[in-house]
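Ligand: guanosine-5'-monophosphate. Inputs:
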Amino acid sequence: MFEEWLTPEQIASDIQQEADHIRADYEGRVPLFVVVLNGAFVFAADLLRRLHDLRCEVTFLRVSSYWGMASTGELQFIVPLQQSVKGRDVIIVEDIVDTGMTIHQLKAHMRAEGAATVRVATMLFKPDKLEYNDARPDYVGRQIANEFVIGYGLDLDGFARNLDAIYKIKN
Ligand code: 5GP
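Predicted complex:
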């Protein structure tokens, strides 16, 4: 049903380039990375280790907006923000931006909590599906077509997050 689509090497190269962009933009600042659980944990671990020379903090929140393969359009905070974002340069770390609903709501949440700046780093971005203009990510590993993908943190009903490559549905 699924076939391997992005190899671990391709993913690593995407993340390296993304990390280089972030490092160049945040040199001399101390950003707070807000990792969106569950899906972004694999990407975040790789991205942040490639930024080992950037002074930064990392915190997590957990939202749920996706069940199976269809978005419900409602964001639930299962684990709320654990650390104050007041006055901070926040970088939200997402696995994939699809309609942008999650990022749209999270950005509003960060601003309401007093973040100084809010940017978004995502591993994958589906530009054709974007419904919220303010959710266009600032740092993107790879733009992809409108396809459902799994692996590397991305799940299929809770499974497949531990796959080290990214798989898509076989046509
Ligand atoms: P959005 O709010 O941008 O519509 O959706 C974002 C969330 O939906 C992602 O964090 C991810 O959990 C889920 N999602 C969107 N597209 C995919 C996909 O192709 N595969 C998987 N596994 N999850 C996806």
